[in-house]
């Protein structure tokens, strides 16, 4: 407790120096007031993938920053193709000041193109005080820290309807085989076991990554993520074979493979938590809760809950994460204000603003868990923070965008093809290796 208190005070001191805060309370989230208004008259433009409720809630963070510093803020939603949109804005002389980068591979590409400004000393000190080393690693390129992970995702959560599992008489499983067995029992009770969002290829990469991390272990996961290990490796074929057992089982997937390929992520959540449920479970990250709550009125912890993605073949239960890293562009017109924004985002205070709004997890270990609005979110946040350096970042997000982050291409497309026909894992592995080799050379 003393160590945590000392760290929190250190980060608060850094915040005071950076933002002119006059006080920093230890008993809960810090208020956003008390700034020096030193950035009055400046405007910070922030680009990111967020839209809808995510954009609305991030705007609350930006408003807290404005209240503190006097700077105005403008958020621009890029859609999924962040690298293309930001690249065109830079070429057109209209670069944003800050970009919330959702993929490690894109962050690396930005750094290699010379687009990024290293994080300030104050931000680096806050990262050292508030984050596990793994987040520093994923935010760095060639030893230089460019990215601050503000929003994280816990992608090792399986969400379920408590009523559906209770009706089937099954409890949350702890192994992958138990999960499939429980799925058959749910199916026998009248609902499909899983809703799968096959229309969105990124959800399929998440399925694969959880299985692979648990089954093959973290060393091979890291090697495959960096393409030091070929996708034709026996460990990849084994993981695809394990995933294929689910994909080809007509009892387990709502509507079968064809319907899964026509179901997007929000639709997959609706099939479990909507007004006419078709399945008992849906695998995806903690952000499932936001859709279940905001779109379908579910009470998290009562009629929507989760269990950790279960261990596969005797391995450790996986903790796969994703996240959005804030970076400062060299070509932005307001670098001073942009730097101050990142110094703010690195603090527990900034994280608390979105945590209180909901639909958010922070990798900031000094954020008071009481900031989260419900016990389930607190549990997922605690699980992510407690995992420390054993967290592994979403593998597809570490890859070049051409392989791991492009709709209708690369890993997304190949795993959709595998969902359509999971009969030949070796052929799928060969296709993945060919696509990866091309993307990494590029």
TrEMBL record:
Q: Which PROSITE patterns match?
A: PROKAR_LIPOPROTEIN
Q: Which SUPFAM superfamilies match?
A: Periplasmic binding protein-like II
Pfam families this protein is in?
SBP_bac_1 (PF01547)
According to the lineage, what is the superkingdom? Bacteria
Q: Where are the transmembrane segments?
A: none
Q: Which UniProt keywords apply?
A: Signal, Transport
Q: Where is the signal peptide?
A: 1-23
User: Family assignment?
Assistant: Belongs to the bacterial solute-binding protein 1 family.
Q: What is this protein called?
A: Sugar ABC transporter substrate-binding protein
């Amino acid at each position: 407790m003393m160590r945590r208190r000392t760290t929190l005070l250190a980060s608060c001191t850094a915040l005071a120096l950076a933002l002119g805060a006059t006080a920093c309370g230890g008993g809960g989230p810090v208020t956003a007031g008390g700034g020096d208004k030193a950035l009055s008259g400046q405007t910070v433009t922030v680009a990111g993938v967020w839209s809808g409720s995510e954009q609305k809630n991030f705007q609350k963070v930006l408003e807290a920053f404005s209240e503190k510093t006097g700077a105005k803020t403008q958020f621009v939603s890029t859609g999924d193709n962040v690298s293309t949109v930001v690249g065109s804005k830079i070429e057109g002389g209209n670069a944003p000041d800050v970009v919330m980068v959702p993929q490690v591979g894109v962050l690396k590409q930005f750094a290699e193109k010379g687009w990024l400004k290293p994080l300030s000393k104050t931000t680096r000190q806050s990262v050292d005080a508030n984050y596990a080393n793994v987040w520093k690693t994923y935010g760095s390129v060639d030893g230089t820290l460019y990215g601050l992970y503000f929003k994280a995702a816990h992608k090792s959560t399986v969400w379920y309807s408590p009523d559906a599992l209770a009706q089937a008489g099954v409890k949350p499983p702890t192994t992958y085989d138990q999960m499939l067995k429980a799925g058959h029992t749910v199916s026998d009770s009248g609902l499909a076991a899983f809703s799968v969002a096959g229309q969105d290829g990124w959800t399929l990469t998440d399925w694969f990554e959880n299985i692979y991390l648990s089954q093959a272990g973290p060393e091979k996961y890291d090697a495959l993520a960096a393409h030091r290990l070929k996708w034709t490796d026996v460990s990849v074929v084994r993981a695809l074979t394990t995933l294929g057992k689910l994909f080809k089982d007509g009892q387990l997937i709502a509507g079968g493979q064809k319907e899964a390929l026509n179901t997007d992520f929000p639709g997959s959540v609706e099939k479990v938590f909507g007004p006419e449920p078709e399945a008992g479970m849906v695998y995806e990250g903690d952000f499932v809760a936001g859709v279940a709550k905001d779109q379908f009125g579910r009470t998290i912890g009562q009629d929507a809950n989760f269990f950790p993605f279960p261990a596969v073949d005797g391995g450790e239960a996986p903790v796969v994460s994703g996240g959005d890293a804030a970076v400062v562009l060299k070509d932005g017109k307001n670098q001073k204000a942009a730097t101050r924004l990142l110094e703010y985002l690195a603090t527990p205070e900034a994280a608390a603003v979105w945590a209180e709004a909901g639909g958010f997890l922070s990798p900031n270990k000094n954020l008071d868990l009481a900031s989260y609005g419900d016990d389930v979110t607190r549990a997922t946040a605690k699980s992510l923070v407690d995992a420390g350096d054993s967290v592994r970042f979403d593998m597809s997000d570490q890859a070049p965008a051409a392989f791991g982050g492009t709709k209708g291409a690369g890993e997304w497309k190949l795993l959709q093809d595998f969902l359509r026909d999971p009969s030949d894992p070796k052929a799928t592995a060969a296709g993945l290796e060919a696509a990866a080799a091309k993307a990494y050379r590029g």
